[in-house]
Amino acid sequence: MTGLESASPWIGLKAAALLSAMFLLSGCSSPPAYREWTASPDVPTIAYDECNEQVDHTMRLRGYPLRPLPETPQYGYRKEIFALCMRRKGYATE
After folding, report:
1. CA distance 69 to 63
2. Are the CB atoms for 55 and 81 separated by under 8 Å?
3. In the chain, where are the structural domains located?
4. Which of left, alpha, beta for 90 (phi over 0: left; psi -120 to 50: alpha)?
5. Residue 4: its pLDDT value, please?
6. What would the pLDDT profile of 20-76 be if each residue is shown by its tens digit?
7. How many C-beta neighbours within 10 Å does residue 11 have?
8. Is 69 left (phi over 0), alpha (psi -120 to 50) or beta?
9. What pLDDT does 16 receive?
10. Residue 58 phi, psi dihedral angles, 5° rounding
11. Which residues have C-beta within 8 Å of that of residue 82, sequence separation ≥ 6?
12. In angstroms, what is the C-alpha Rg of the chain?
């Protein structure tokens, strides 16, 4: 029995470890996957609904009515908060 035969199990483990490390690192070389995603047609609707919920929450915290009449100052306040939320999400007024 030579020394090479007794060392072969260690060589196999080292080779397997080296191959698995190369396999794991090869996944790091590709560009980020999020750039391949595109927005679905429902995104503006979802952003609109999320902003409505946020504005309702803010109005509730301030003690204002949730759906104020257009002639009240709270209506303008609600409109400004909503516009700010939509701008944060990347939308502009049409």
Report:
1. 15
2. yes
3. 41-94
4. left
5. 53
6. 766 665 555 555 444 454 656 777 888 888 999 999 999 999 999 988 999 999 999
7. 10
8. beta
9. 74
10. -65, -40
11. 51, 52, 55
12. 29
Does the structure show a pLDDT above 60 at 86?
yes
Q: What is the token pair recorded at 73? A: 């100052």
41 near 47, Cβ under 8 Å?
no
pLDDT of residue 43: 75
- Supply 54's token pair: 């946020």
Instruction: Write down the pLDDT at residue 60.
Output: 94
Please name the amino acid found at residue 86.
M
Torsion sign across C-alpha atoms 93, 68, 81, 39? negative
**Residue 92 has what pLDDT?**
76
Q: Which structure tokens are listed for 3?
A: 């020394």
- Burial tier of 35 (Cβ tally within 10 Å: 0-12, 13-18, 19+): exposed
Q: Distance between CA 26 and CA 22 in Å, rounded?
A: 6
